[in-house]
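Our preliminary data section would be incomplete without showing what the modeling component actually yields. Below, a chain of 450 amino acids is followed by its predicted structure, encoded as tokens that our downstream tools consume directly.
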Amino acid sequence: MNSDIKNNLAKGSVAKKLAFFTLPFLLSNLVQALYNVADMLIVGNFSGAAAMSGVNNGGQITFVLTHIIVGLCMGATVLIGQYVGANNDDGLKKTLMTTLTLLFAAAVVITIVTLIFKNDFLRLIQTPEESFAESESYLTVTSIGLIFIFGYNAFGAILRGMGDSKRPLYFALAACVTNIILDLIFVAAFGWGTFGAAVATVISQALSMFLCIYYMKVSTFPFDFRLSSFKIYKNTLKMILKIGMPTCVQNGIVSISFLFIAGIVNTVGGTAGAAAAGAVLRFNSFAFMPTLAIGLSVGTMCAQNIGANRLDRAVKSCKIGILFSFIISGAIFVMSQLFPAQIVSVFGDDPEVIAYGVEYLRSLSYDYLVIPFVFCVNGLLIGGGDTVFTLVNSILSSILFRIPLCWFLGITLDWGLFGIGLGIPLAGAGVTLMIIGYLLTGRWKRNLVK
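Predicted structure:
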């Protein structure tokens, strides 16, 4: 196998390895967030609040589906990382074949289901009537392109599991530039609104996926993309599902909880509130990226180090990740508190949208002080295959904390979007307490990948 593809993270300085692995990963995620933001920014400035609401509501459902698949990919990332750390090439090859077969099959099934029930999903989140057609248009196009969205995320997870965070950055950058150019053509020049933004997104993701495939084919990658190579190994599938399904369900539940929150926002703020929430969430996708990238990088480093029986290095990776993450996330929190109106106004100049957006961002941004600990410790636990606790934790936090708090503060106490936003960091604080309690038990020290 090409030595450029494998990167052993179980040797050398922990801080340097984490920093040099995280930086391309972080830039890759920021670039991906940029082309999501480009949709909202260009649509907001050229097509108005109803179109912004359409991108937000249609995009929320695509976001849920993508994050469910990303969770399943995490099982493959952990297995690949541990096999790389243990120099087990046979296990690595079987994992690649099983993962890609499973994910492409899942993409076909989920695409069909989404197209059949798309209107029901949009009604479930109380999509305003005046933006329903825009939301349905965006969701239809992105659903058809789910195979590209899933494919790129699968290949990115595989490469990162092997310690390569640079190539996903290059492919994401190409897709970002393509998306912005196509947004300007389809939305600004042709006036296609949300339909144009969705088409631009799908074409960009397809480009990313095919660039990944091309790179893997010209490298000595242990998967040749022939039809005969798409097969499932039963024991490998069981291991991927054992690790990945809890994370998959966890991501699904967390994402669905935000769908319910979108419904609460639609109830409280209507079209303007949904547009404001969409603008804030697009900014939030940027704000979360450093912590998310560091947390996932911690997971990959921990997987390789635990695979190499170096629990001490895994713990050190987690601690350094928390420190790095808190410094960055804390700075973003300060910026959000000082300049909320300026941030929201980037996405459009509607005074009502800006007013709602300031409310929402001021309270939601407190979550930036909580997530460094949660994401990095979850990375440590997932790296050791301990995904059941993170699943239970997420279910409890979403069902017992996040949705009820957002409803109570936003609707019962009539605090509007400020109350809805405040419910999110308060739920994060509850998650933190549960994680601390679990760490104190010492059960997290077991390696469950066996």
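DSSP finds 14 helices and no strands in the chain. The longest helix spans residues 234-307. Preliminary results of this kind motivate Aim 1 of the renewal.
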